[in-house]
Amino acid sequence: MANVPSELVAAFRGGAARPFSSDEEAGLAPVLAEVLARCEQAWPGAWLPSGDFAAHLGRHTPADAPPAQSLATLCCEDLYLALAAVEGHRAALEALDATALVPAGRAVRRVEDSNAFVDEVLQLTRLRLLVEDGTRVPRLKEYAGRGSLRRWAEAVALGVALSLKRKPDRTTPLDDAVIAADLGAADPELEHIRHRYRPAFRAAFAESLAALSPRDRNLLRLGLVQGLGVESLGALHQVHASTVSRWMAKARSTLLEQTREGLARRLALNTSQLESLLRVLDGNLDVSIASLLKEG
Amino acid sequence: MPESPSTSHLEEVELLDLADGIPSQTLRARAEVHLDACATCREALADFLRIRAAPAPDVHAARTEVVLTEAPGARLSASGMPLLAQGTLLGRYVLLERLGSGGMGVVHAAYDPSLDRRIGLKLLRALPSAGGSQGMTERLLREAQAAARTRHPHVVTVHDVGTFGQVVFIAMELVDGGNLREHLRAQARPWRDVVRLYLQAGRGLAAAHAAGVVHRDFKPDNVLVDKEGRARVTDFGLARVESGAGVSESAGAPALLGTGDVTPRPQAVVAGTPGIITPGRLGTASAGTPGHIAPRVLGTAVAGTPGYIAPEVLAGAPADARSDQYAFCVSLYEGLHGQKPPSLEQGGPTNRAAVPRAVHALIIRGLSPEPGARHPSMTALLDALERAAFPVLSKKVAVAGVGAGLLAVAATVFAVMSTPPCAADPLRLVGVWDADRKAALLKAFQATGAPGAVAAHEAAARALDAYAAAWHDSRRQACEATRGRGNQSEAVMDLRMGCLERRRRELGALTDVLLTADRDGVASAPETAQALSPLSRCADVEALSQPVPPPDRPEVAARVKAAYARLDEARARLSADRWQEAVDRAGPVVTEAEALGYKPLLGEALLVEGEARAFLRDEAATTTLRRAMLASLAGRDDLHATEAVVHQLYIDGEVAQRPEQAKLHAEEARALLERSGGNPDLEAQLLVYQASSLVQQGRPGDALPLLQQVLSLQERLYGRDSPRLARGLLLMASALRQAGRGEEALVHNRRTQTLLEAAYGPDHPKVAMVLNNRGSTLVELRRYTEARDSFQESLHRYERMYGPGQPVRYATGLRANLGAVAFTLGHYDESERLQREALAMYQKHFPPGSAYRVRTGNNLTLVLINQGRMQEALKLIEQMEAEREAATADGRRDPVFAQPPLNATEVHLRMGHPDLAVASAKRAVALLREMGAEADLSYALRNLAGALSRAGQLSEGWRVAQEALSVHHKLAGADVPPLPELGQTLGELALERGDAEGACRWLGAALTQWEATEAPPLELAVIRYSLARALRQAHREPERARALVTAARDAVLPTAEPRLLKVSELDAFLREH
Asked: What is the pLDDT, as a whole number, of residue B541?
């Protein structure tokens, strides 16, 4: 194996498709050699010609810093495994299964705890990772080494699992006409008011929703429409659940208040008229917010 | 990528990072913008979040794998541990300073946002992921999770266990202190101190054994001693990591078995050497025991630390509770003698220090090489050890009766232990409740000149004596739990003592109140004494530790304390039924609590005020109680919040008749009870008020099962003869009465009276109330004279206690009841006078729509109808309908509101408008159906059937009457005959339908029932005439028919037109032959 540093650097440069200063190139040579040695120690068997791997590294090394530095942030062993697997080395495929897919299977169990489901998901994941699908390259080629391969594969497998589970109708927004019809049957007066003021209400609502910050809008949508609990949203934002509920309460009250103002303005109602209208709407306001957010 | 970063969809791994809460800053910013515009990604993210939050099917998979937010370059230290910078996010934990490290792992302090506190985060060395050690990791995780379930004062709490890459992490409580080895080394300690600490650690170990968890590596290094001197066991089940890692690594560096050398040091916070690896400690553990490397050499995965491992485990047997016992005894021996027990070759363990032989013998038995020869369990060993080391403490029961000599011995022992005694000090209640106060109380009672002062004193004093004794007992128990058995921390003892101190003040305040009692106060003194807050709550550690602790600043703390003292005075007044005084006294405390911003106090003060207002039947109480609940919730004081909700239930269910509201409160209260782990007192009270609301709504069928539950709960809690059962029993009687089971109602009524009189004597407001209820039941049974006597007796007793016409609310109610009886006995003038008085009083004291007003108005209407004053009656009915509307607008509902339309039915019938009568009766039926008030429904259906029959709608009438009959049988049982009114209606309908035989049967039976009552002839006139017609149609008993009609004629003749029956019609019947 001709691990001549200059050849490696050339291959790397070819992959990166950009020029390097001589300083950069000089710093690169020993780093590349060391990375290669590490990878070959991790995966003995010389699955890849070193030039190919150097070019691969070059492709995935971020361009915003000197290459030697950028290289240090990559999971090079995982990149090596990914490239070898996508090129079809049997041993690499086995290693991929053992180190990435089997653990991913455990995470998939949270979606549905059955062996058949996990097997199916893993099989689909393998296909997606390794096989070309029409115009789409194998997903594993997109793995850029920025996080561990194991986690990356877990995420892909979860995505596969979730899309398997997702009911087709879930993606179409609920038609709130159903809800409205239901309410109308129960209370004709309410139905009348809803019909009469609906467009104004919608407009006022859309206006005040647009005025919220993106964070608040997302919180309300995930919370009210997707029905996620504050615990989950807290995990998303890395804050305590009570903070999330404070945020949401604040966002909701802002939304309601501004909708009220907008509505009053549009309908030219005085305060007491508006109050009585809102009393009628109030009980259904949660439903309204949820359905309107879904549309928004 | 063709699209700009913010427009391209989020990739799976990005979604996963977001869902796990570990996105980079760039990703977070991009996601915020993108999600706002992309519904698909929102939905995908929601799915990921849901999955990550979902409970996993398997314990191991349940643990989120934690991923570094830093570039996962995962630079590893020489030991295979990642080197992590302060501020790194590990899952939800924020890494703080490093506390210690060793061959096995490192310990960092970390911040856990979900607990909002500092924790210790132990990271255990990476395990090779291949092959067998994967299962190894899982087993380890399972065990650590099992250990995490052991909650005990002497076990370090584990919050979370999981993996981060190939590293296992354990999030645990941060203990401020050092380990037991260091603690004992720091200074020489008397042998009893050593034993005491080991007893504590042993209790922790025993608790884990009880949960099925084996430690596998017990030793002084794994026992932490906090600043309060409490010993706590840590690192359950972790020995496996060690041995596993050690064996797999054995190719290179000398691997050490055991965790002693590597025990990460959460306790190092105090040691002041964060981040310093402690090679010294590495040395000590291994150097002392060079001969024990054997297991590694053998290549078996033996867990534990050399020198502490039981012989059978070294030989390959699995570790169990008995091998833990062995390790415990090695540690204790080491603690007492400064070295491990010498092996048999070295002469075996000897007792070289001044340790009692008994203690030594126990340890030797625990060190038996044969597991079967050791103590049967840790608990057995600990109990024996405690007896041997602290003989006096363990014999405390005997000491109490033996005398001064032994007490002095006990005191010496305590002095040696330098802990204060827990012995009861009778002086603690001097000036609160003692012999002098008792005598003074008798004088005070007698001075009021109240009848039965001596008896009242005796009953009250008995209750207070019992309370005082129980108080001493509770105090001793609280003390011993910490100072004696040592299974409770000082902090918990302080909580219990604080609670008991408040009970002591309450007892004092209550005695003060009793000393100033007037005549009324004397009568209710025994009940007052019963109302002291239960002491059992002071032992409810969980509830006690809930409320937000009071402010630390001394001047604020002093104000809080003073405010509580004043609140206790208010509470004493509440218990003494001096409701207005309680309101007046609680008010300023509320203001003070608001100024201090201390929520638990505010909640309690509002609760006292609201409770007192509730007793005053002041509907505004509901606002106060709601504020009380909110304040208590804010102060995390679940019990008082629940109490506030329960009283709201009372107001809405019983006083204000808002059943919907009452139901909501009941649900709220139930949820709160569930959260606070339940409280039998409050549960019983909740059930009582729920049942009361149902009885108010005329739903005896729903109320009865609840009441059965209440009674069995309360009998268990307070005993069968406790006066606390009275309320439930009374409600039971009312429900039975409503269900038409009057005789059973009377039995319960009698039982209530007996137990109340036994507890409080005959002249007590509650006894008088029972007599009133008894009267109502008797009316239902048509035993009018007895009913009148009962009402009069009740009134008499009230007036004896409170003076003529007092207390107004109750006396007026009774007079209204007497008026109702007078009506049934035909004394209309007297009845009208009494009803009008009552109505005027109720109109003054209760808001429009109150059930009291409507009920009395209805009775008055009946009097007017029977006097032929139809226009007046209609006007009154209209008024009552207006009241009902006011009530409905206010959310009140009560079956009594169906009575005005029923009265209107009667008026229309008498005035010859059967169609109007049918319409009115239908309205009443609809109202009752809506309420589900079955007890009254049967009655209203019967009226409707009667009206339909008069309107000529015979088949409809028959159907309705049948429904009335089936409702009756549903409530009262299949074999109980219907009330005579219903029988009469059925008979009359049969007659109209041409079924003369059926009519004779129904009417004959109904008349027999009627005649057994004291119903006046006028009430019987109609049925007598109907029966006569039935007989004639059936061609039977012509003479009896004539006699019946004659009696009817005699009855209606003196009444005013329009009469119940037309005299001309009756005369025609008599003429026809």
From this structure: 62
Residues B483 and B624 occupy one common structural domain: no
DSSP string across B972-1008: H-TTSPPPHHHHHHHHHHHHHTT-HHHHHHHHHHHHH
The CA distance from B384 to B363, in Å, is: 10
pLDDT band for A3, please (50, 70, 90 cuts): low
Where in the sequence numbering do the catalytic residues of B fall? 217
Classify residue B1041: in a domain, yes or no. yes
CA dist A203 and B995 (Å) reads: 71
Q: Which of residues 192-221 of A touch B (CB under 8 A)?
A: 214-215, 217-218, 221
Residue B861 lies in a domain: no
Quote the CA–CA distance of B940 and B927 in Å, as a whole number.
10
Examine the domain organization and report whether B382 and B262 are in the same domain.
yes
Distance CA A27, CA A6 (A): 11
| Confidence band of B331 (pLDDT split at 50, 70, 90) | very high
What distance in Å separates the CA atoms of residue B779 and residue B771, rounded to the nearest whole number? 12
The amino acid at B115: L
Chain A residues with beta carbon closer than 8 angstroms to that of B42: 218, 221-222, 226
Highest mean pLDDT among A232-236, B171-175, B741-745, B1026-1030: B1026-1030
Boundary (domain end) residue, out of B659, B678, B697: B678
Residues B39 and B113 in one domain: no
- In this prediction, residue B329 has a pLDDT band, given cuts at 50, 70 and 90, of very high
Query: ipTM score here?
Result: 0.73
- Say yes or no: B341 and B478 in one domain: no
Contact B310, B321 (CB under 8 A): no
CATH of the domain at B127: 1.10.510.10
- pLDDT, residue B549, reads 64
Least CB–CB distance from A109: residue in B14, B47, B57? B57
Give the pLDDT mean for B259-267. Answer: 35
- Give residue-wise pLDDT tens across range B537-552: 777 665 565 556 666 6
Q: Percentage of residues in chain A with pLDDT exceeding 70?
A: 75
* Residue in A214, A226, A236 closest to B36 by CB: A214
Q: Is the pLDDT of residue A187 over 60?
A: no
Q: For residue B1051, give its domain range.
A: 984-1073
**B452 and B318, same domain (yes or no):** no
Tokens of A186: 């129960």
Asked if residue B883 belongs to a domain, the reply is no
Mean pLDDT (whole number) for B700-704: 88
Q: Of the candidates B624, B654, B678, which is a domain's last residue?
A: B678
DSSP for residue A19:
-
> Do B908 and B997 belong together in one domain?
no
Kindly state whether residues B971 and B996 are assigned to the same domain. no
- Decide: A159 and A152 in contact? Cβ < 8 Å: no
Tokens of B695: 């009885």
Q: Which residues of A touch B130 (CB under 8 A)?
A: 98
**Residue B397 above 80 pLDDT?**
no
Query: How many structural domains is chain B composed of?
Result: 6
Q: What is the CATH number of the domain that holds B644?
A: 1.25.40.10
B176 by DSSP, 3-state: which? coil
Distances (CA, A) of B352 to A256, B349, B783, B847: 80, 9, 90, 86
A120 φ, ψ to 5°? -65, -45
pTM recorded for the entire structure:
0.41
List CB contacts of B244: < 8 A, sequence separation 6 or more. Answer: B127, B133, B136, B140, B301
Determine what percent of chain B is predicted with pLDDT higher than 90.
7
Collect all residues of chain B within an 8 Å Cβ-Cβ radius of residue A72.
71, 73
Flag whether B787 is in a domain.
Answer: no
Question: CATH no. for residue B1032?
Answer: 1.25.40
Same domain membership, residue B511 and residue B588: no
